[in-house]
Amino acid sequence: MDSAAFLLSDTHRQFRDAVRQMAEARIAPHAAAVDRDEAFPWESYKALTEMELPALAFPAEYGGAGADMVTQAIAAEELARVCASTSVTFLVTKLGMLPVMNFGSEELKRTYLPRVASGQSQASYCLSEPDAGSDVAAMRCRAERDGDDYVLNGTKYWITNAGVSDTYTVFAKTDPSAGHRGISCFLVEKDWGVRVTKLEHKLGLRGSPTGEVVFEDVRVPASHRIGEEGQGFLIAMHTLDRSRPTIGAQAVGIAQGAIDYAVGYLKERKAFGKPIAELQGLRFMVADMAMRTEAARGLVYRACALVDAGDPDGDLSMVGAMAKCVASDTAMAVTTDAVQLLGGYGYTTDFPVERFLRDAKITQIYEGTNQVQRVVIAKALLG
Ligand SMILES: Cc1cc2nc3c(=O)[nH]c(=O)nc-3n(C[C@H](O)[C@H](O)[C@H](O)COP(=O)(O)OP(=O)(O)OC[C@H]3O[C@@H](n4cnc5c(N)ncnc54)[C@H](O)[C@@H]3O)c2cc1C
Fold first, then answer.
1. Is there a contact between 343 and 354 (Cβ–Cβ < 8 Å)?
2. For the chain, how far is it from start to end, CA to CA, in angstroms?
3. What is the gyration radius of the CA atoms in the chain, in angstroms?
């Protein structure tokens, strides 16, 4: 047994320090403005691209850095610690490209992966629809074969990076009579007729565009089908299993950002003639916040290690769901307490903790709600 497996390596720690330094210097200064203005964080995206973070998730043979999942989680954490909207740009492109990486043809990999790895191009993952969120198989989007093409018709909803992405990974029914076995997956370029018809105004994650994407007679070459016909549901779930741990990391990062800010504030703020950091009631709150966050971080890293190890015991779905659920519930609780620790100031936009609270909420909803994660966990245990 090697207990070092439970520690971060020197390389991981150095990487964490480097990303933290970059994020504090180049991303944190824009975080409040992108949230206020609902503006895509282009300056921050430039900074993370210069650090080659978009390359992390992709194999070296396709222009990537071939980093392990813990490294990717550290990047997600450190970006989310200052700006959750920026962290999602890097996570969603990976989400959009995992189907290509794991199920795509060699031609698709060679064409698209280097573009996203360099940061020149971004991707979206189009699974949800107005009437098909948790119930993926209820999707209505249709792909009909016509010669060497498929013709795509339908509406996708809640699509992160809508309008910013150049490529859209779209799930659609090729056989509507076959339920979830009738779903297939396609890579669609923006210029083939992808229309963004609405952008949402959201509680949090406001620097990340979330939109309605409409496909009307969009012709997609059959060469751009990812995997086999009917394999779409499996691809979607396989992808989410390998992405959820990094949503957990995003949640851990948001929680850590709130703790770090609150700790600094408690040392400065005085009440009754002394720093409020000396009040035991508040000290215990901080201890609980840190405890929960550290526990969530450990579970997230374990889920990441399972992805890297190729899911040796077949429990990645369950552990990944646990990691996402624990981390996002923790982020919600910790950020709520951080607002409390700052008193009235915490409730204003002059301080970042209310943004952390608003950003934390989405981690309980996307990539499967926390109720759906509990369905996954219970199914693994009870059948
Ligand atoms: C900001 C944002 C970004 C997003 N980005 C993307 C994206 O890039 N791509 C994409 O495809 N989707 C994306 N989504 C969609 C997201 O994944 C869905 O919102 C989510 O899966 C829930 O679906 P729904 O909103 O239709 O809720 P519903 O499925 O209608 O759920 C409503 C409620 O019922 C509960 N529920 C549903 N089924 C069950 C069940 N079996 N057991 C117990 N409770 C249940 C849910 O937990 C929830 O509380 C995004 C959403 C948001 C808000």
1. no
2. 32
3. 21
Residues paired with 155 in a beta bridge: 214
- The one-letter amino acid code at 289 reads M
Kind and range of the H or E run holding 215: strand 210-221
Residue 242 · residue 91 · CB < 8 Å: no
**Structure tokens that stand for 200 in this block:** 């949402």
Tell me which H or E stretch contains 154: strand 149-160
β 210-221/195-199 pair status: antiparallel
| Of the candidates 355, 293, 359, 357, the residue with the CA atom closest to the CA atom of residue 326 | 293
**Per-residue burial over 171-182, b = 16 or more CB atoms within 10 Å of its CB, e = otherwise:** bbbbeeeeebeb
Q: From the CA of 190, how far away is ligand 1's center (Å)?
A: 24
Listed residue (82, 76, 77, 87) closest to 30, CA to CA? 82
Tell me the CA distances in angstroms from 271 to 255, 263, 276, 279, one per residue in order: 25, 15, 6, 10
User: For ligand 1, what atom is nearest to the CA of residue 127?
Assistant: 11
pLDDT (tens digit per residue) in 9-63: 999 999 999 999 999 999 999 999 999 999 999 999 999 999 999 999 999 999 9
From the number of C-beta atoms within 10 Å of its C-beta (0-12, 13-18, 19+), residue 299 rates as buried
Identify the residue whose tokens are 């396989």.
238
* DSSP for residue 132: B
In order of their start, the domains of the chain are 3-117 (1.10.540.10), 123-232 (2.40.110.10), 233-382 (1.20.140.10)
Greatest alpha-carbon span in the chain: 79
Ligand 1 center to 364 CA (angstroms): 9
Select from 136, 368, 164, 378 the least CA-distant residue to 247. Answer: 368
Q: From CA 121, how far away is CA 101, in angstroms rounded?
A: 15
Closest C-alpha residue for ligand 1 atom 16:
366
pTM over 0.90: yes
Mean pLDDT of all residues in 123-145: 97
Count of CB atoms situated within 10 Å of the CB of 95: 26
pLDDT at residue 1 is higher than 80: no
325 alpha carbon to ligand 1 midpoint, in Å?
Answer: 14
